[in-house]
Amino acid sequence: MVTRLDQREGNFEPRFAAFLSTKREVSDDVDRAVRDIVADIRARGDAGLIGYTRRFDRADITSRLRITPEEIAQAYETSDPAVVDALRFARERIASHHARQKPVDDRYTDAAGVELGSRWTAVESVGLYVPGGTASYPSSVLMNAVPAVVAGVERLAMVVPAPDGVLNPLVLVAADIAGVSEIYRIGGAQAVAALAYGTETIAPVAKIVGPGNAYVAAAKRQVFGTVGIDMIAGPSEVLVVADAQNNPDWIAADLLAQAEHDASAQSILITDDAGFADAVAEAVERQLKLLPRGEIASRSWADFGALILVDSIDAAVPLINRIAAEHLELAVADPDALLPKIRNAGAIFLGAYTPEVIGDYVGGSNHVLPTARSARFSSGLSVLDFVKRTSILKLGPDQLRALAPAAIALAKAEGLDAHGRSVSIRLNV
Amino acid sequence: MVTRLDQREGNFEPRFAAFLSTKREVSDDVDRAVRDIVADIRARGDAGLIGYTRRFDRADITSRLRITPEEIAQAYETSDPAVVDALRFARERIASHHARQKPVDDRYTDAAGVELGSRWTAVESVGLYVPGGTASYPSSVLMNAVPAVVAGVERLAMVVPAPDGVLNPLVLVAADIAGVSEIYRIGGAQAVAALAYGTETIAPVAKIVGPGNAYVAAAKRQVFGTVGIDMIAGPSEVLVVADAQNNPDWIAADLLAQAEHDASAQSILITDDAGFADAVAEAVERQLKLLPRGEIASRSWADFGALILVDSIDAAVPLINRIAAEHLELAVADPDALLPKIRNAGAIFLGAYTPEVIGDYVGGSNHVLPTARSARFSSGLSVLDFVKRTSILKLGPDQLRALAPAAIALAKAEGLDAHGRSVSIRLNV
Q1: What pLDDT was estimated at residue B252?
Q2: For position B18, what pLDDT does the model report?
Q3: How far apart are CA B302 and CA B321, in angstroms?
Q4: pLDDT exceeding 70 applies to what percent of chain B?
Q5: In the predicted model, is pLDDT for residue B213 greater than 80?
Q6: Contact B342 A390 (CB under 8 A)
Q7: Which residues of A touch B363 (CB under 8 A)?
Q8: pLDDT for position B216
Q9: Residue B401: HSE in the Cβ half-sphere, 13 Å Cα cutoff
């Protein structure tokens, strides 16, 4: 049964707090198994990759680790041209939006004559993990690869498992359209280890991004430090804030688009109209029957879905900020007026004609966004995830003389004599 | 014995690779103990904090969890006014440099009439961990707190343990100067748990930053997800690139300023002149005898120090980028000419009059920087660590009609029918 909460009821606050702290993920304890796999790949390289792929993907990749240009050409041939065009269209929109995110270098001289600066450089090489099977989404390839290319990453190495030798051709096409430089037919913890430490065939990368199952997530955590990693995303979620001036069928469709992702996904409606909430709930039940993935969506809706009734849309603001949703739709009369009050959200979709799904594919913004309330402290994937900043400092003798007394006083106060000496020794000239 | 490497020798590459992969940290296995402490604080709140503080810090903090304004006033009175002034001087320089890092919102309409945007908001509340005892550095309080204040964080809650009831008054003064809003007399994993989950006295925060020992690092890793965390810093390091036109004593002083931090710190000199390398090595030995922390610095230098001889300063560039040092000094004739070739470094100090120590205290840039080669994929602490980005999308009926075909094609190709319906349902009007 979908959860129903009413702000006007006396026990709202404890029930809302409990709802917020619901865990939607079972964390498999796979750390030990992953540790063994990572150690084995470090020790045996390609041979290890071939062994695990035989075992887990039931495929022999001896001398076929890397996907060939011919295979990519073939993938284009077997793909629906309309979908290939849609991928190209999406790539253009993602690339032009992300181009605006490139940070600008700063170099200046302050009043004391000290030169300061911040300089941005691209990460040299990035590994991109792409899941196999049903979760092998070409749109996710674009969303992870395009920002890296826009950032200036020179080498983008993708891994994607081919269970029973089967690959989604659209994933290869998306990789090619995005500008991926190398693709390897491997997955799981072994692929993450190969990207982090390198093998005979695969040169190591500096950072690994992309979604994956519990084994992939555990492997990313374990290699973190040796390489950088992106956030570890949890199940997806949408919060729709809608007044009664909406078509309940449209809102129900949006809630179900989220729910069909997987049984741990979460769809929440906040509305100020009880009758509208009921109408949406009915529309959800009606539409569920039409969906090929209706069983998954039903479980998600029953286990984690929620209808929250509020006094007014304004009264919803603190709840919206506490939920800190990955996706937030504002289907209200004046969404731009509500926008400045929203503090925590991964992405905001304004008005009735901006269903969240547009952001999944072709809006231009990224669909890799902070889940599980982490929008309180983190951001979606962007060009910034593929660059790093170096700070720059330059003093001449005069500037050193001006700054020395404070530096020496602080070094002394912290008991770090060699620190003080490194400054004072330059003054005795 | 300090490591000596020579680029002109045949076995340089394997020796340099081995040097790069040297581990400088023993990772204590404290995960289980920390897990128990975190669970206990979640269950018992303040009572748990009081119990662990009695046990680990040998102090009774019942009804004294929070540091009072009177204690802060007293800290000012017991501090050297020159050091207080130095802290104020440092705060001003840090604040004005970091003010330039504030990201700018972006909102625009593209050629298709789609409105897009990126909006930055400050993290609402941040916890700052400050170690007790000898590693209780007032400069680190400034470096962690000032960027948060500049970012617009409203609530900045600091924790600092007082072993045997003793606190460094300069840490309280630095916190006050930086604009910290609350200070609690607690430390260890229990303090991290209190910040993440809250207790009767301490409201939970959204992100925790600041250095700490193995217990603090493990606790931060465990609460990550519930709150954001900063990077887990390893031992500090400096790479000095110097030609023969330098005073060996100055360079030796810089190497030792790093080495005195702790026995796991690392100081590396790269030079193109064997005689200069010898002169620096001699100066190091001479200066070591003068240092109060000479024993620590000696161990660091002997265990992890290195003198690397190169053919030419230009030939050093690939090595510099592979070392990816936290601190990089370019003490060469034309450091600005070398600068564009350097890709991986946390902070770069240009010329003979910019010792790294200036950046530790009063340069204005941050001294919290990526260690252990992580400058290949990450950046030093900045205002960006205290803000997060929300992406914004707004379509009208015309824009939806223009983008719909590609979105529907991709949804269908990915087998996500409800995604397609969420778009198509809005077109039938």
Answers
A1: 98
A2: 86
A3: 24
A4: 99
A5: yes
A6: yes
A7: 114, 116, 393, 395, 403
A8: 95
A9: 6
- pLDDT over threshold 90, residue A154: yes
Name the DSSP letter for residue A227.
B
Q: For chain B, report the end-to-end CA distance as a whole number of angstroms.
A: 80
Q: Identify the bridge partners of residue B115 per DSSP, sorted by sequence position.
A: B109, B394
pLDDT (0 to 100) of residue B21: 82
Spatial distance between the Cα atoms of A217 and B377, rounded to a whole number of angstroms: 19
Separation between Cα atoms, residue A328 and residue A268, nearest integer Å: 10
Which B-chain residues 185-214 have CB contacts (< 8 A) with chain A?
A: 206-207
Residue B206: partners with Cβ closer than 8 Å, 6 or more residues away: A376, A377, B123, B124, B125, B126, B227, B228
Report the 3 state secondary structure along B72-138.
HHHHHHHCCHHHHHHHHHHHHHHHHHHHCCCCCCEEEECCCCCEEEEEEEECCEEEEECCCHHHCCH
What span, in angstroms and rounded, lies between the C-alpha atoms of A179 and A88?
A: 11
For A21-77, give the DSSP string.
T---------HHHHHHHHHHHHHHTHHHHHHHHHHHH----TT--BPPHHHHHHHHH
For A361, B8, B236, B425, the CA distances from B4, given in Å and listed in that order, are 54, 12, 20, 71
What was the pLDDT predicted at A72?
Answer: 97
The answer to whether the CB of A141 falls within 8 A of the CB of A131 is no
- A425: number of Cβ within 10 Å: 17
Phi, psi of B391 (to 5 degrees): -90, 150
The mean per-residue pLDDT over the stretch B333-348 comes to: 97
For B241, phi then psi, to 5°, come to: -105, 115
Instruction: Look up tokens 């000419």; give the residue.
Output: B337
Q: What is the pLDDT of residues A301-335, one digit of tens each?
A: 999 999 999 999 999 999 999 999 999 999 999 99
Which of B80, A358, A9 is CA-nearest to residue A350?
A358
What pLDDT, in 10s, does the model give residues B325-336? 999 999 999 999
Convert the pLDDT of each residue in A369-422 to its tens digit: 999 999 999 999 999 999 999 999 999 999 999 999 999 999 999 999 999 999
Q: Provide the 3-class DSSP secondary structure of residue A369.
A: coil
- What's the confidence (pLDDT) of residue B232? 83
C-alpha to C-alpha distance for A275 and A273, rounded to whole angstroms: 6
Structural domains of chain B ordered from first start: 31-229 (3.40.50.1980), 234-376 (3.40.50.1980), 395-424 (no CATH)
How much is the average pLDDT of B140-165?
97
Q: Residue A289: list chain B partners with CB under 8 A.
A: none
Catalytic residue among B237, B326, B329, B356: B326
When scoring A393, A400, A424 by the number of chain B Cβ atoms within 10 A, the one with the most, hence best to mutate, is A393
Q: Which residue has the tokens 């343990």?
A: B161
The pLDDT, as a whole number, for residue B26 is 65
Q: Given the structure tokens 């008991």, which residue do they identify?
A: A415
Query: Which A residues, 120 through 149, put their C-beta within 8 Å of a C-beta on chain B?
Result: 121, 123-124, 134, 137-139
B141 and B367 Cβ atoms separated by less than 8 Å: no
Chain A partners within 8 Å of B318 (Cβ): none
Q: Is B283 on the interface with A (CB under 8 A)?
A: no
